[in-house]
C-alpha cells in the first residue's frame, strides 16, 4: 500500500470483512484517507463499494477487521455516531426535502436557536445568512435562502448536501456516486466542489464507477472487485485504461472494448 | 428575504416580482377564498350579515371548526391524517360530561382530565401508525368507528340507557373556570361600547352583541401558537421535514416518530378542547357530537393550502379555511338561496382548492 507520509490517515480501515449470512460481501478490504486528499473508490456494480462505505459510515458493523479514526480504534453503532465523530456521508438520495427551502433543509435537525425557555426559537436570520454564505463559498448563488430545494438542479442539490456536511464539521466526507445521475456541466460543478472541500483539509472518499470522473479529482485510486481490493495507486502512476481494466476484472472487457471502438 | 447582493447573478433567473413571491405562499388560496366569499355575500346577502352581530354569528361555528382545522393542518403537514377527530369530540365530550355530571368533579380537574385522556387516545393512534408503518388513513378510520361506538356505549352506561347526558350546565354554573370555556368574553367592554353608542343596542340599552364568544378567542390563540411553532421554532422545521420525506428527515437527525406522536396527541387535544367548549355551551353531550367534523377539518386545512401528501401547508391558511366554512354555512341563511346548496358549495371549494394547491406545489418545486 502507498501511504502518504506527510499526514496520518484520518480513517484507516484494516482487513474489513462483512458477511451477510453465507454471502461474503467484503473479504478483507483495507483503505485509508488522509486530510486534504480525495481517495477514489472504484468498482463495478456488485463489487462491494456500497457495503464498504456503509461500514465506514456506521450503517453496518464489520464482521471482522478494525476501523481506526484518527489513530484510535473505533466502533460505530449508528450513522449518528459516525457523524458526531466527523464522518459525514452524502448518500445518493441526499436527505433533502424538495418542498422545503434551502436554508430549512440545510439546518434540518440541527436548527440554530435564539432566546431561551418558552421563547427559544428557530433563528431563521442566522440560518439564512449561513446558508447563503456557505453556498456562495461553493460557487452557487441562490435566488434567496427561501428558494425551495425542488427548484435546484441535481448538481446544485448535491452541492447543498456537501456544503451542509462540511458546515457541520465533517473531517471525512463520503460521497456515494455523486455524479452518477448528472449532466456534463453539473458533474463539473460537483467535481470542483470536491476540489474546494479537499483544499479545506477534509478527507474525501469519492465512490464512482466512472474512471474519468475519478481521474479528474482523485489523489489516490483504490479498486474493489468481488469484495476485495485489487490495489491502490497514486495519481500519475496509473492510466485510465489500466483503471478501467482493473474495475472490469481484466480480460472480459478487452474483447468488448474492441468491438465498441474504445468508447467505454 | 436576503439583504445582501450576490456577487454575480445567474442570467437565467428572472428577478421575482412581489406578486410571484406572494403566489408561493400556501395560505394565499385561503385568503383569496375569504375575499371571494365575502364579495359574494356582500352582493347577495342581507346587509345584516356584516354587522357585528352577523359576524359573530358566522365566526362562532367557524371557530369551533377552526380549532380542529388548525390541529388537522399541523398533522397533515407532518404527513399524517386523523379521521377519528370527529368521533374524538363525542368521546371527549362523554369523558368530560361523565367527569362533571356523574363524578361531580370541578372543572379544574375535569378539563385537564379530558385533555389528558384525549392525548392518550392520540398517543394510541400515533403509536399504531408510527410502529406499524401503516397509512394513518386506515388506522384512524378504524378509530373513527371505535371512538363513536365507545361514546354510544359509554353514554348509555353513564346515563342508564340514554345517548344524551344532560345536566352539565347545572353542575358547572358556579365554577370559576366555566367562563373561560363558555359564553362571551369582554362583556364589560361591550356594555361600555353600547353606552357610548359605538355598537348597536336593543331598545332597552342592552348591546345586541353581549361580547366575543370565547371559542373565537381560543380559535385565534390556537392559530397564532400553531403558526409561530410552525414558522419560528425548530419543532416547526421538524414537522415540515417529517411530512416532506420522513426518511430524509430521520437521516438528518429529526426525531420523526416523536414529532408524529406529538402531532397526533395535539390534534386529539384540539378535538377535546372543542368538545369542552361545545358541551359547556349546550349543557349536554350526545353521541352524535362532532359527526363528520373530521372531513370538514381536513377540507378547511386543504383550502388553507395543506397538501394531502404532507410537507407543505400553513396553520394560518387553515384559520382562513375555517372562516370560509363558517361564512358559507351561516351566510346562506342571509340570502334567498336554498341552504342545501351548502354541501354543493363545500365540495366545489374543496375541488378548486386541491387544483389550486397542486398548481402552487408545482410552482414551488419548479416542476413543469
CATH class of chain B: Mainly Alpha
The quaternary state of the protein chains shown equals heterodimer
Sum up the overall morphology of chain A in one term.
globular
The CATH superfamily of the largest domain in chain A turns out to be P-loop containing nucleotide triphosphate hydrolases
* End-to-end gap of chain B: 25 Å
| pLDDT averaged over residues of chain A | 84
Provide the gyration radius of chain A in Å.
19 Å
The main β sheet of chain A shows up as:
6 strands, mixed
- For the record, the CATH class of the largest domain in chain A is Alpha Beta
Helical content of chain B (DSSP H or I, runs of 4+): 55-70%
How much helicity do the residues of chain A have?
25-40%
Task: Tell me which CATH architecture of chain B applies here.
Answer: Orthogonal Bundle
Q: How many domains is the backbone of chain A divided into?
A: 2
DSSP strand content of chain A: 25-35%
> Taking Cα atoms only, what radius of gyration of chain B do you get, to the nearest Å?
22 Å
Structural class of chain B: mainly alpha
Largest sheet of chain B: 2 strands, antiparallel
Strand order across the largest sheet of chain B: 1-4
Tell me the number of strands of chain B.
Answer: 4
User: What's the number of structural domains of chain B?
Assistant: 1
The helix count of chain A comes to 9
Note down, in words, how this protein is organized.
The complex is a heterodimer of chains A (264) and B (368). Chain A contains nine helices and twelve strands. By secondary structure, chain A is an alpha/beta fold. In chain A, helix 5 (154-167) packs parallel to helix 6. Mean pLDDT of chain A is 84; it is low at 1-5. Chain A folds into two domains: 11-91 and 155-260, P-loop containing nucleotide triphosphate hydrolases (Rossmann fold); 100-147, no CATH class. Helices cover 34% and strands 25% of the residues of chain A. Chain A has helices at 49-56, 79-85, 102-106, 124-137, 154-167, 184-199, 211-217, 240-248, 252-260, and strands spanning 11-20, 23-33, 38-42, 64-69, 72-73, 87-90, 113-114, 121-122, 172-176, 203-208, 220-225, 228-234. Chain A has a six-stranded mixed sheet, sandwiched between helices. By secondary structure, chain B is mainly alpha-helical. Chain B has a single domain (50-365), classed as ABC transporter involved in vitamin B12 uptake, BtuC, CATH 1.10.3470. Chain B has helices at 18-22, 28-44, 52-77, 85-102, 107-132, 136-159, 168-172, 178-181, 187-195, 214-232, 234-244, 246-251, 256-282, 293-303, 315-331, 341-365; strands spanning 164-165, 184-185, 212-213, 285-286. Chain B has a two-stranded antiparallel ribbon with strand order 1-4. The A-B interface holds A 79-80, 83, 91, 93-100, 104, 107-111, 113, 120-122, 124, 128, 132, 136, 141-146, 148, 150-151 and B 1-2, 4, 6-10, 13, 16, 228, 232-234, 236-238, 240-241, 244-245, 247-249, 251-254, 307, 311-312, 361, 364-367.
Amino acid at each position: 500500500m502507498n501511504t502518504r507520509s506527510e499526514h496520518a490517515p484520518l480513517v484507516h480501515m484494516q482487513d474489513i470483512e462483512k458477511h451477510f449470512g453465507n454471502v461474503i460481501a467484503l473479504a478483507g478490504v483495507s483503505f485509508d484517507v488522509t486530510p486534504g486528499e480525495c481517495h477514489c473508490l472504484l468498482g463495478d456494480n456488485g463489487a462491494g463499494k456500497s457495503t464498504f462505505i456503509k461500514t465506514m459510515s456506521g450503517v453496518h458493523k464489520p464482521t471482522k477487521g478494525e476501523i481506526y479514526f484518527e489513530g484510535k480504534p473505533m466502533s460505530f453503532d449508528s450513522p449518528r455516531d459516525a457523524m458526531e465523530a466527523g464522518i459525514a456521508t452524502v448518500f445518493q438520495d441526499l436527505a433533502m426535502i424538495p418542498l422545503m427551502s434551502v436554508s430549512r433543509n440545510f439546518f434540518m435537525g440541527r436548527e440554530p436557536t435564539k432566546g431561551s425557555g418558552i421563547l427559544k426559537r428557530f433563528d431563521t436570520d442566522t440560518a439564512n445568512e449561513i446558508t447563503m454564505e456557505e453556498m456562495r463559498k461553493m460557487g452557487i448563488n441562490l435566488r434567496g435562502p427561501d428558494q425551495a430545494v425542488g427548484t435546484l438542479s441535481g448538481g446544485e442539490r448535491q452541492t447543498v448536501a456537501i456544503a451542509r456536511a462540511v458546515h457541520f464539521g465533517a473531517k471525512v466526507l463520503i460521497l456515494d456516486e455523486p455524479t452518477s445521475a448528472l449532466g456534463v456541466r453539473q458533474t463539473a460543478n460537483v467535481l470542483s466542489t470536491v476540489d474546494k472541500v479537499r483544499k479545506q483539509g477534509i478527507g474525501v472518499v469519492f465512490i464512482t464507477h466512472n474512471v474519468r470522473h475519478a481521474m479528474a479529482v482523485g489523489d489516490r485510486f483504490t479498486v474493489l472487485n468481488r469484495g476485495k481490493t485489487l490495489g491502490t495507486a497514486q495519481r500519475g502512476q496509473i492510466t485510465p485504461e489500466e483503471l478501467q481494466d482493473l474495475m472490469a476484472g481484466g480480460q472480459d472487457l478487452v474483447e468488448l472494448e474492441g468491438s465498441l471502438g474504445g468508447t467505454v | 428575504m436576503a439583504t445582501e447582493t450576490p456577487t454575480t447573478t445567474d442570467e437565467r433567473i428572472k428577478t421575482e416580482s412581489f406578486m410571484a413571491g406572494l403566489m408561493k405562499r400556501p395560505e394565499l388560496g385561503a385568503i383569496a377564498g375569504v375575499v371571494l366569499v365575502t364579495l359574494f355575500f356582500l352582493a347577495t346577502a342581507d346587509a345584516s350579515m356584516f354587522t357585528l352581530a352577523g359576524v359573530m354569528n358566522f365566526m362562532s361555528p367557524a371557530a369551533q371548526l377552526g380549532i380542529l382545522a388548525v390541529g388537522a393542518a399541523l398533522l397533515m403537514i407532518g404527513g399524517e391524517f386523523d379521521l377519528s377527530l370527529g368521533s374524538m369530540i363525542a368521546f371527549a365530550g362523554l369523558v368530560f360530561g361523565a367527569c362533571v355530571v356523574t363524578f361531580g368533579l370541578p372543572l379544574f380537574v375535569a378539563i385537564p382530565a379530558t385533555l389528558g385522556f384525549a392525548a392518550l387516545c392520540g398517543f394510541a393512534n400515533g403509536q399504531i401508525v408510527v410502529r406499524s408503518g401503516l397509512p394513518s388513513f386506515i388506522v384512524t378510520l378504524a378509530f373513527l368507528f371505535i371512538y363513536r361506538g365507545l361514546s354510544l356505549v359509554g353514554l348509555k352506561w353513564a346515563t342508564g340507557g340514554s345517548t344524551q347526558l344532560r345536566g352539565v350546565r347545572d353542575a358547572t354554573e358556579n365554577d370559576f373556570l366555566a367562563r373561560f370555556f363558555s359564553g362571551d368574553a369582554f362583556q364589560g367592554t361591550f356594555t361600555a361600547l353600547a353606552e357610548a353608542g359605538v355598537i348597536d343596542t336593543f331598545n332597552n340599552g342592552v348591546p345586541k352583541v353581549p361580547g366575543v364568544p370565547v371559542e373565537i378567542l381560543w380559535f385565534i390563540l390556537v392559530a397564532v401558537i400553531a403558526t409561530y411553532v410552525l414558522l419560528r421554532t425548530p419543532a416547526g422545521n421538524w414537522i415540515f421535514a417529517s411530512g416532506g420525506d420522513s426518511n430524509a428527515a430521520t437521516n438528518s437527525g429529526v426525531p420523526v416518530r416523536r414529532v408524529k406522536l406529538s402531532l397526533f396527541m395535539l390534534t386529539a387535544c384540539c378535538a377535546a378542547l372543542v368538545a369542552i367548549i361545545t358541551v359547556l355551551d349546550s349543557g349536554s353531550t350526545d353521541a352524535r357530537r362532532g359527526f363528520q367534523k373530521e372531513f370538514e377539518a381536513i377540507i378547511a386545512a386543504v383550502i388553507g393550502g395543506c397538501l394531502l401528501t404532507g410537507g407543505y401547508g400553513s396553520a394560518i391558511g387553515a384559520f382562513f379555511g375555517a372562516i370560509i366554512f363558517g361564512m358559507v354555512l351561516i351566510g346562506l341563511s342571509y340570502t334567498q338561496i336554498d341552504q342545501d346548496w351548502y354541501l354543493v358549495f363545500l365540495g366545489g371549494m374543496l375541488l378548486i382548492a386541491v387544483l389550486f394547491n397542486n398548481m402552487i406545489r408545482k410552482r414551488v418545486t419548479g416542476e413543469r
